[in-house]
């Protein structure tokens, strides 16, 4: 946030500071003050480096619930540092609301670094396992589809196949839509994990 | 002399103490010969004190940590799993243990102590119900950013998760309502955890920290040393509050201030937390900007200061809200634009640009969008900003100040009753508050409960100094005043302490009267009895069409109640009885109660109905000839 007039979302007729008004004018019809978080919502991806302490996942999810942020997906794993974990959080909201979520996350003692990578060039990948209903009649057809979709068959059984697909969320969405006609018995997705392109590193940015 | 457990500061048994309950007191300056003798005996005992011939256990670590952190008093109630701590307490006569009558009272007392001293308040309880009873007090401290460490015992670690007797997941309960919390199962972790808890509670934006300790950890032998301050900081890489403001933002702020013609400072609780009251006044005087304050910002500026403009918000002064609505610049310092302050944000201060100073980045842009965000400690920000703002001559703002003065005359004339009585010769609460303020020379600590009494106190007591006003602002916890006043009185024994309460809140925690007596804590209780839940009644009258469900609240004979506890009680029903009753309570050496039977249907005006804006204040209601 900077000090320029547009950052409060109001559209004063005078682009510089509003001229001091007579107090009596205050009751006429002044422009409504913008509500934080009332802007256009879109999907954001936050990456958080947290201390690997018991309960840290609970702290993060409890905070998001209590502050009324709606998480789409949350992926947690170890990092190369033995005492830290990395969370990839995707959520919907306008820029101000998501910035507020990041600032609330910073209030947690165990959170070391939060970065909104929504507008950064990133590699974003998700893994899914799909158990597809298969018969002798259509198994070959399914396997062909899997091959074309760069999926991998990881289990073959009499009446089903388990397929592993990895890729950006949209590719997985497309694959799932494609095989739905055969019948999906079971589906599990990890949620996105992301990493910034280039040499910058959020882990190295963590002050220790 | 080798000290044994029995000798170490144990209270006299009830049998040998059937006469008046004269208890040891650690209050310095109590003045009585008895107190002096107790103090001498205590010092002699300290010099002689030798630890019992036993090894150091987790419970010892807790006591040592409290002493290392400068704690000299804490509020607690024993129970099964915290008994190991009580078993060693006698070996630490430097620690004053106040045995409360309910854990909620202990938490509020720690809160009151913290608010008047600026130090960390400490309360303890056992597992299960002891811990859940602390929860309301912890929540109160969180919403008002009060530094507190709450310690609970928990069942032995082997029993955790087994639904053992008095086991509840208190860590899960306090997680969203503390700044941080811990569960300790190993005594070797205790020195580090307790040092971190105190550091987190008092550093940056203050707040409560909860430390849950299993019974076996309290009993476990340990030789773990206490960490140094540097080690504590190193162990908390995720906790680095930003104290100093960004220089570029300060320049932007100074430029906004130079341009403004109708600026208003909004002073909040952060001024008191940061001890920035001198810097605030210096800044306001140099730039000639009037200072409005929030409920918890009371005391940030002496209300008799020419630049002090008054209390803002839902029940604030009309002139203050008017000034905010017509301001072209708001300089908000250590306040969070709570809904009780802004009303409907859409219509809040429509012409104002906003500079928002707060130590917590998450507060900025949370409730209102601002033009100049400044993250930092209020004291350091104001000190840095002072040389950057131009000195303004009072005369250049003469028109502005003249208008503000006129509005003030207007508003004080319309909503100040001042007659000493209200309708039908009944006692008016604002008059009672005004007399308490005057007769205590505005130099006492005034502890509010919640509801009408809280707003009357905020408006009419006339506050002069920092940390003289204690009020549950954020959580609005009824029953707060008497226990919080207990802690406030121990924290600031040089001042008189008044608990201002309604009959509703008083009945919620009146069990602490016994603690006041047993520990001879000289709290003066002003009970404003309208036999109603006054604020509920007011809302039902104005917003719910007079549907007074449950607003009538019968109470006991409060004089008899006080008498049963051995507390002198005085009663005032007419304006003439007010001054003598206050003076009589002040003359009591120890706690006293004044029962003011006030008008049953007095409203507090102005009032901003929920959802409305600061320009929509209600100043009267049909039938109420305010």
Q: Biggest interface, and residues per chain?
A: A-B, 48 and 49 residues
Report the strand count of chain B.
18
In CATH, the architecture of the largest domain in chain B is 3-Layer(aba) Sandwich
| CATH architecture annotation name of the largest domain in chain A | 2-Layer Sandwich
Estimate percent helicity of chain B.
25-40%
List the helices and strands and how they pair.
The complex is a heterodimer of chains A (208) and B (626).
Chain A: E1 42-51, H1 56-66, E2 71-78, E3 84-93, H2 95-107, E4 111-116, E5 122-133, H3 139-148, E6 152-156, E7 160-167, H4 169-179, E8 184-189, E9 193-196, H5 202-205
Antiparallel strand pairs in A: 1-3, 1-4, 2-3, 5-7, 5-8, 5-9, 6-7
Chain B: H1 33-48, H2 58-68, E1 73-76, H3 83-89, E2 96-99, H4 103-117, E3 121-125, H5 129-143, E4 148-154, H6 170-174, E5 180-184, H7 190-202, E6 208-214, H8 215-219, H9 229-234, H10 247-259, E7 263-267, H11 269-273, H12 277-287, E8 291-293, E9 308-311, H13 318-325, E10 329-333, H14 339-342, E11 353-358, E12 372-375, H15 378-385, H16 398-415, H17 429-439, E13 445-448, H18 452-460, E14 469-470, H19 481-491, E15 497-502, H20 503-509, H21 513-518, E16 523-529, H22 534-542, H23 558-565, E17 569-572, H24 575-587, E18 592-597
Parallel strand pairs in B: 1-2, 1-3, 3-4, 4-6, 5-6, 7-8, 7-10, 8-9, 10-11, 11-12, 13-14, 13-15, 15-16, 16-18, 17-18
Helix pairs in contact in B: 2-3, 2-7, 4-5, 4-19, 12-15, 13-16, 17-18, 17-24
Keywords:
heterodimer; A: 208 residues; alpha+beta; Alpha-Beta Plaits; 2 domains; 5-stranded antiparallel β-sheet; 4-stranded antiparallel β-sheet; globular; disordered N terminus; B: 626 residues; alpha/beta; Rossmann fold; 6-stranded parallel β-sheet; 24 helices
């Amino acid at each position: 946030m900077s000090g320029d007039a547009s950052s409060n979302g109001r559209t004063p007729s005078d682009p510089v500071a509003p001229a001091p008004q007579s107090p009596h004018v205050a009751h006429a019809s002044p422009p409504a003050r913008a509500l934080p978080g009332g802007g256009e919502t879109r999907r954001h991806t936050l990456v958080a480096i947290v201390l690997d302490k018991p309960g840290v996942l609970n702290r993060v999810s409890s905070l998001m619930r209590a502050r009324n942020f709606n998480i789409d997906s949350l992926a947690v794993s170890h990092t190369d540092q033995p005492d830290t974990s990395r969370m990839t959080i995707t959520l919907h909201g306008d820029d101000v609301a998501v910035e507020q979520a990041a600032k609330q996350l910073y209030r947690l003692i165990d959170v070391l670094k939060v970065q909104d990578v929504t507008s950064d060039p990133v590699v974003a990948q998700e893994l899914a396992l799909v158990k597809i209903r298969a018969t002798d009649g259509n198994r070959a057809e399914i396997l062909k589809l899997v091959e074309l979709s760069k999926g991998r068959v990881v289990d073959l059984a009499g009446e089903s196949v388990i397929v592993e697909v990895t890729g950006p969320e949209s590719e997985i969405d497309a694959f799932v839509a494609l095989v739905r006609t055969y019948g999906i018995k079971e589906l599990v997705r990890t949620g996105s994990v992301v990493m910034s392109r280039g040499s910058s590193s959020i882990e190295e940015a963590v002050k220790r | 002399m080798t000290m044994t457990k029995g000798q170490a500061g144990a209270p006299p048994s009830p049998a040998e103490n059937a006469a008046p309950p004269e208890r040891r007191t650690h209050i310095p300056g109590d003045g009585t010969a008895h107190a002096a003798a107790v103090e001498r005996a205590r010092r002699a005992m300290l010099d002689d004190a030798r630890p019992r011939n036993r090894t150091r256990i987790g419970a010892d670590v807790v006591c040592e940590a409290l002493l290392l952190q400068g704690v000299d008093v804490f509020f607690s109630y024993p129970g099964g799993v915290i008994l190991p701590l009580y078993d060693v307490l006698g070996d630490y006569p430097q620690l004053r243990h106040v045995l409360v009558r309910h854990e909620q009272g202990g938490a509020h007392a720690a809160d009151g102590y913290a608010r008047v001293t600026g130090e960390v308040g400490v309360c303890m309880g056992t597992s299960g119900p002891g811990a859940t009873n602390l929860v309301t007090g912890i929540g109160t401290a969180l919403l008002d950013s009060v530094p507190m460490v709450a310690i609970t015992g928990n069942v032995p670690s082997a029993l955790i998760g087994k639904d053992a007797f008095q086991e509840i997941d208190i860590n899960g309960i306090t997680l969203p309502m503390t700044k941080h919390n811990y569960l300790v199962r190993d005594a070797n972790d205790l020195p580090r955890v307790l040092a971190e808890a105190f550091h987190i509670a008092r550093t940056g934006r203050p707040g409560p920290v909860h430390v849950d300790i299993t019974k076996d950890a309290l009993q476990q032998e340990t030789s773990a040393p206490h960490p140094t301050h540097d080690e504590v900081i190193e162990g908390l890489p995720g906790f680095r509050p930003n104290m100093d403001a960004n220089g570029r933002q300060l320049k932007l702020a100074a430029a906004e201030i130079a341009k403004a013609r109708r600026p208003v400072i909004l002073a909040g609780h952060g001024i008191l937390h940061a001890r920035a009251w001198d810097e605030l006044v210096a800044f306001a005087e140099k730039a000639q900007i009037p200072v409005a304050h929030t409920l918890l910002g009371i005391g940030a500026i002496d209300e008799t200061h020419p630049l002090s403009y008054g209390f803002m918000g839902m029940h604030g002064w009309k002139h203050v809200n008017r000034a905010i609505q017509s301001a072209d610049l708001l300089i908000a310092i250590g306040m969070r634009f709570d809904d009780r302050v802004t009303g409907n944000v859409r219509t809040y201060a429509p012409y104002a640009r906003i500079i928002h100073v707060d130590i917590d980045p998450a507060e900025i842009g949370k409730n209102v969008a601002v033009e100049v965000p400044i993250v930092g400690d209020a004291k350091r920000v104001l000190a840095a900003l002072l040389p950057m703002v131009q000195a303004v001559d009072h005369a250049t703002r003469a028109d502005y100040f003249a208008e503000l003065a006129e509005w003030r005359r207007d508003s004080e004339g319309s909503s100040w009753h001042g007659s000493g009585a209200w309708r039908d010769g009944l006692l008016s609460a604002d008059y009672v508050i005004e007399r308490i303020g005057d007769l205590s020379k505005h130099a006492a600590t005034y502890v509010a409960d919640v509801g009408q009494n809280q707003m009357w106190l905020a408006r009419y007591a006339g506050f002069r100094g920092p940390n003289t006003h204690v009020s549950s602002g954020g959580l609005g916890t009824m029953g707060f005043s008497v226990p919080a006043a207990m802690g406030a009185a121990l924290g600031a024994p040089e001042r008189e302490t008044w608990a201002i309460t309604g009959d509703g809140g008083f009945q919620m925690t009146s069990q602490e009267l016994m603690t006041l007596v047993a520990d001879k804590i000289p709290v003066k209780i002003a009970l404003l009895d309208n036999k109603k839940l006054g604020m509920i009644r007011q809302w039902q009258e104005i917003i719910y069409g007079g549907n007074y469900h449950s607003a009538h609240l019968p109470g006991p004979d409060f004089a008899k109640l006080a008498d049963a506890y051995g507390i002198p009680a005085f009663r005032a029903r007419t304006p003439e009885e007010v001054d003598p009753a206050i003076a009589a309570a002040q003359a009591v050496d120890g706690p006293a109660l004044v029962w003011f039977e006030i008008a049953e249907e007095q409203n507090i005006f102005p009032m901003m109905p929920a959802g409305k804006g600061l320009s929509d204040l209600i100043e009267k209601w049909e039938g109420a000839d305010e």
